[in-house]
Amino acid sequence: MPNITLSIPEDIYRKIKKYSEIKWSEVIRRAIVDYLKKLEESKTEISAKELLDELGEDFKKSLNELDFERSVEGYERMRDMEWKRISTIRVN
After folding, report:
1. What residues contact 24, with CB distance under 8 A and at least 6 apart?
2. By residue range, what is the domain housing residue 53?
């Protein structure tokens, strides 16, 4: 795993030293991953209206004919696929 070095102000360093039991590298690693996830989500964000417009009238008609149970089933499947995709993203 690659290493990075960062500089922090002296006062923050003193505060960190008070909590030596905390794995600060893990805290920073998680913060970086969370920030990257937010950046990636903001790049792919599209409104429902924009998506429906892009998919076209035929899709809108078929969506209106879809029953509630199948809608929920499809949503849950997409949610699970997205969770799997996000949880397997590697940060190099």
Report:
1. 16
2. 46-92
